[in-house]
Design a protein that fits this description.
- The chain is mainly alpha-helical and about 240 residues long.
- It has two domains: about 150 residues, no CATH class; about 80 residues, no CATH class.
- The protein has nine helices and two strands; from the N terminus they run ααββααααααα.
- It has a two-stranded antiparallel sheet with strand order 1-2.
- A hairpin with a 6-residue loop joins strand 1 and strand 2.
């Protein structure tokens, strides 16, 4: 009785002509789905999806398939392609929670990056030695968490957040905390749809409007807002 070890089986399958084509098909379909737009309609758990039909979308899908075919033919393991199944989760039938749409849009790039790195590592490359594994793991976890939080965080601030951000804009643009001109100019429309009235009680002795909110937090998030706007503040906090 002959026993076929998994490693021998893996090499045999990868050496066949059908398996690289299967890997290419999986990558091409996943690349096509990565460019789609999936969102909840707001009525119950209904979802709507839009698939791209442009020449660019087709070219990217074919390019991903060709890259997967080449990698598997060159000896890379096809196992990392299983991660691409996450891109198909939003397309599953039935009721899905909002978190099911996590791996769409910009977050899909993380999946493709992980697949590419795993394919590269599976060819037995000599990886660089990590001298501080704990710090490296922490940095990677922070990066993935920050990107994930950026994706699922609300796109507009709520509560008193807009008023703090107006103070931040006043500090950055005018160098003061007099907010009347910032409201009049509609500076807040970068992160709020509609009108936002100044949150104050009485005018100051000089006739200017000052927010009832303390400017400490606004000053703290000013560097993040200056670099990346409201999204930068979300990641910073």
């Amino acid at each position: 009785m002959h026993v076929i070890l998994p490693s021998h089986f893996d090499r045999t399958v990868r050496g066949s002509r059908v398996f690289p084509l299967l890997a290419a098909s999986i990558a091409a379909v996943a690349a096509w789905l990565s460019q789609s737009l999936v969102f909840f309609t707001g009525t119950g758990d209904g979802r709507m999806a839009l698939l791209p039909l442009s020449a660019t979308a087709v070219a990217l899908a074919l390019g991903a398939g060709a890259a997967a075919w080449w990698a598997v033919r060159r000896g890379a393991s096809a196992l990392p392609l299983a991660l691409l199944a996450l891109l198909a989760v939003p397309w599953l039938p039935g009721t899905l929670p909002s978190i099911a749409l996590l791996w769409t849009g910009r977050m899909a790039w993380l999946i493709w990056l992980a697949v590419a790195l795993c394919l590269w590592a599976s060819k037995e490359h000599r990886l660089p030695r990590v001298t501080r594994p704990h710090m490296t793991a922490g940095a990677l976890a922070f990066t993935v968490g920050a990107v994930a939080f950026w994706q699922v965080a609300p796109s507009v601030p709520g509560g008193d957040e807009p008023h703090y951000l107006v103070i931040t804009q006043s500090l950055l643009m005018d160098g003061d905390i007099r907010i009347e001109n910032n409201h009049r100019q509609g500076d807040y429309r970068a992160y709020v749809s509609g009108n936002l009235n100044p949150d104050f009680r009485v005018r100051g002795r000089n006739g200017e409007i000052y927010s009832i909110h303390a400017p400490g937090v606004s000053a703290l998030v000013a560097p993040a807002f200056a670099i990346a706007g409201y999204g930068g503040v979300v990641v910073f906090l």
